[in-house]
Amino acid sequence: MNLLKWLESWYLSQCDGNWEHSYGLIISTLDNPGWSVLINLFETDFENKQFESLILERTEDDWIHCSVKDGLFEGFGGPTNLEEIICIFKDWVEELS
Fold this sequence. Notes:
By secondary structure, the chain is an alpha+beta fold. The chain has helices at residues 3-14, 19-22, 82-96; strands at 25-30, 34-40, 54-57, 63-69, 72-77.
């Protein structure tokens, strides 16, 4: 399954008639340039799980910062790192499942 389909499935699995009205995820661009991925973990099985923060600084355009803070997965990366950010989230979720 490709990463986007996996993310769609994960999102759908959280939708219970209530969660999706208050929470969700946001994928947007940064002006440096890059990507921002914010995924609400509130009221999911992952809300209180440990995530080891990750910082990869390869080049000016190839970098990733991922963490979980206050019930929110935060992934930021360079302009070609969106797929890698989603993969990091996927690997963490699958490791805990």
